[in-house]
Structures are given as structure tokens and as C-alpha cells.
Amino acid sequence: MTTYDDRAGLADLTSTAERVRRSVESVIEGKPEVVRIALTVLLAEGHLLIEDVPGVGKTMLAKTLAKSIDCSVQRIQFTPDLLPSDITGVSIYDQQRREFEFKPGAIFAQIVIGDEINRASPKTQSALLESMEERQVTIDGTTYALPSPFMVVATQNPVEMEGTYPLPEAQRDRFMARVSVGYPSPDAELRMLDVHGGLSPLDDLQAVAHAHDIAKLVEAVRDVYVAEPVRRYVVDLVSATRSHPDLRLGASPRATLHLLRAAKAAAAMAGRDFVLPDDAQALAGPVLAHRLLPTAQASLNRRTAEQVVQDIVQRTPVPSAHPRGEVPGAGVRGF
Length: 335
Description:
Blueprint: H1 4-25, H2 32-43, E1 48-51, H3 58-67, E2 69-70, E3 73-77, H4 84-88, E4 89-94, E5 99-104, E6 111-115, H5 122-125, H6 129-134, E7 136-139, E8 142-145, E9 151-156, H7 169-173, E10 177-179, H8 186-196, E11 209-210, H9 211-222, H10 228-241, E12 247-249, H11 253-269, H12 277-288, E13 293-294, H13 296-300, H14 305-315, E14 326-327, E15 331-332
Parallel strand pairs: 1-9, 1-10, 2-11, 3-6, 6-9
Antiparallel strand pairs: 4-5, 7-8, 12-13, 14-15
Helix pairs in contact: 1-2, 1-9, 2-11, 9-11, 10-11, 10-12, 11-12, 12-14
InterPro entries: ATPase_AAA-3, CbbQ/NirQ/NorQ/GpvN, ChlI/MoxR_AAA_lid, P-loop_NTPase
Protein name: AAA family ATPase
Organism: Streptomyces toxytricini (Actinomyces toxytricini)
């Protein structure tokens, strides 16, 4: 049963998410779907990978999202000579105290911007694995907890670009979603010239939410209801990637969890306390495609992972809706 407090919390969530969305869209022109996915990942406790060619606003999107929230932010410029200790931190011997002192690295922030993550070596990229999955860092046998909320927003250029290293499969699997910004429309690009032609739009951008607000919203998203048929539908979508003839590597069980959490966040942002199959369908591409590896034959046929996911969504039977019962003030609760 949905209580008044539950409905009030859901209203606060949608209101706060709307303020953050408007703040980001005031800088990122003409990309509402990209902004929506970024907010979905934030509220679902995930990490976001932004992949596209240079100059389309990948870093600007990450910095705008971070500045719209009053929280600690660290930016890491990934380069070929970047070391794992530059990210996680290092223990330094203090001669006066005669003991080792831990100096935290850039990963110790609530929002970490990893710029051009695939320009560092795979060894350095792997320094993020523990922090992204377990929200902690282990140095010299000692474990340090990371702040909450915690989100990594990484940008990368396509692997065809010079000087890039492909992300390891384990690294890609830890990102909840991948988005591409794409080129702006002519009208959006014209507005960009007017707005960005002088000072940076980030100079006047003010935070519209606090870190503790986001933490509360994350808790509210966890309580979004998911009916058994919808959970089974999410499992069917992910399972289909493991037997598809065009794929040599399907999505992991972690992908199933990420798709469900993202669907719950999307439902909450839409003002619902229950998940629809449409929520999972809309997020299947961004959540699943970057984890999949097409077969050699599929690559020769120029069949992309995104096309395979779309094919799976079209072929997987959708559960039929039937009311479970009326929830006072909230309409139909689930399936």
C-alpha cells in the first residue's frame, strides 16, 4: 500500500530530478534523451560512459551534471603515463611520525569525471574496478570507503581514434549505461554559438540539488515496485543476448541488475511507483549494448550491438498488463 509519505517522497524525487534536468539542458542544447539517461544512471546508483568523437560535448555534459549538484567533484585526465596510484591514492612514509600515511587519490569524491578514459593503459583503467563495483578502495591491505552518493562519469573516444586503448570487458561491464552525445542540430548549434560564444556557461551555473538530496532520491528509487512478470521480462531480455547467433559474448547477471535498477529510476522520474515493461525496453540499448561482443561474421555484415539489442526487444514477448489492485492516490500499482 502506498502511503502519503511515499507519494510525497515520489513527488520530491520528480521535482528534484526535473530541476537537475533543466539545469543540465541549459548547457547541453538539444540532447534531452542523453540528459535523461544520465539522470537515470545517477538515481540508479550506476556509472555512466559517454562515448563519441572529440568536440561534441562529452566532458561538458559530465561537468554540467556534476556542477548541478552540490557535492564533491574530482576530474581525472586519463593519459598514457597516468598511474593507478594517481587514481586510488598512495601510502607515504611520514618520517616525523614514523608511520605510513595514506594520501587519497582523485577517486575519493562523490562525482568523479574520468576524461578520455581509454587513453590510459588497461592497467590504469583497471584501478577503477574495485571502486566502481564495491564503492571502496584497498591500498596496502587497508580498505577505505568512498563517499556516498558515488558516481563515475567517464568519457571516451571511439577505439578507431589514434592513441586509444579499448576498455577491458570487466571495465565496460561496470558502467550501467553508455550514451553517445552526437552532433547537435543546426538550430541547437546556432544557439550554442550565442550562449557559449563568450564566457563558459558553467561559470554562471548554480547547484540546484545537494548530495543529501540525491542520497534520499536513491533510497526512494530502491522502493519502486517491480512485479514478477516485469522482473521475468528483464531476465528474458538479458538471457536472449547469451544465445543470439550474432553475439559471441552476451550480457552478464550484473547487466540484469543494472537494467532493473535503471528501469526503477526511470519509473520514479516519470512519477510512478511501479515499473512498466516500457521502462526496460527504453533502456535496453544504453544498458546492454556496450557489454556485448558481436561475432566476426556479424562485424563483417556491419551488424552492431545496438541493432542486435533492438532485434531482441522486438522479439521478446512483453507481459500483458492486468491491474493488481487500486492504490489510493497512485492508480494501478503494478502488473
